[in-house]
């Protein structure tokens, strides 16, 4: 079972990475930055770097690349030292395409399953996902490429309590 899960996770990650990078035209942490900032507009590069799990200079490069592409803008932050990061209209359109491609890719992985099997695997994956993070920072990192609208639908995100309780 563990080996089958490993193959599935790796194939899914490869396919999902290809799909989201195709929507954005670049990869690395940039797709996750768009997803996170759509849910948490106005966060600083410091907060973003913790979610992305990359260095501060790496985060600065991602932010600059997204600004140069017209997908992100910097605004004055809470104090003189920080800048608030916000998606532009083009950034939102790119995010929508990115999430659409992500969904298509993941749905293709699930295509061999019957409706009953999808119900079963959903219940099992909810349990697995609920155990993936012990606190808010870990949950935000885990969810960095999630479709947050999908998580708002029933039954909801298995990590929502972890994210809320640690604020």
What does this structure look like?
This protein is mainly alpha-helical and about 170 residues long. It contains 9 helices and 2 strands; from the N terminus they run ααααββααααα. About 25% of the residues are buried.
Sum this structure up briefly.
With about 170 residues, this protein is mainly alpha-helical. It contains nine helices and two strands.
Number of strands: 2
Shape, please? Answer: globular
Task: Please bin the fraction of helical residues.
Answer: 55-70%
**Helix count, per DSSP?**
9
Topology:
Blueprint: H1 2-24, H2 30-39, H3 45-52, H4 56-68, E1 72-76, E2 83-87, H5 89-110, H6 115-130, H7 136-142, H8 148-152, H9 160-165
Antiparallel strand pairs: 1-2
Keywords:
167 residues; mainly alpha; two-stranded antiparallel sheet; 9 helices; 66% helix
């Amino acid at each position: 079972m563990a080996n089958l899960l490993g193959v599935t996770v790796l194939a899914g990650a490869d396919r999902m990475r290809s799909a989201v990078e195709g929507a954005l035209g670049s990869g690395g942490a940039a797709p996750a930055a768009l997803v996170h900032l759509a849910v948490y507009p106005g966060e600083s590069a410091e907060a973003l770097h913790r979610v992305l799990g990359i260095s501060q200079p790496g985060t600065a490069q991602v932010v600059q690349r997204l600004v140069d592409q017209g997908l992100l803008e910097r605004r004055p932050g809470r104090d003189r030292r920080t800048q608030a990061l916000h998606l532009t209209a083009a950034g939102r359109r790119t995010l929508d395409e990115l999430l659409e491609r992500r969904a298509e890719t993941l749905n293709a992985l699930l295509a061999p399953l019957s409706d009953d099997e999808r119900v079963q695997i959903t219940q099992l994956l909810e349990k697995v996902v609920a155990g993936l993070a012990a606190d808010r920072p870990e949950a935000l990192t885990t969810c960095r490429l999630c479709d947050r609208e999908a998580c708002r639908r029933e039954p909801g995100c298995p990590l929502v309590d972890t994210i809320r309780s640690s604020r």
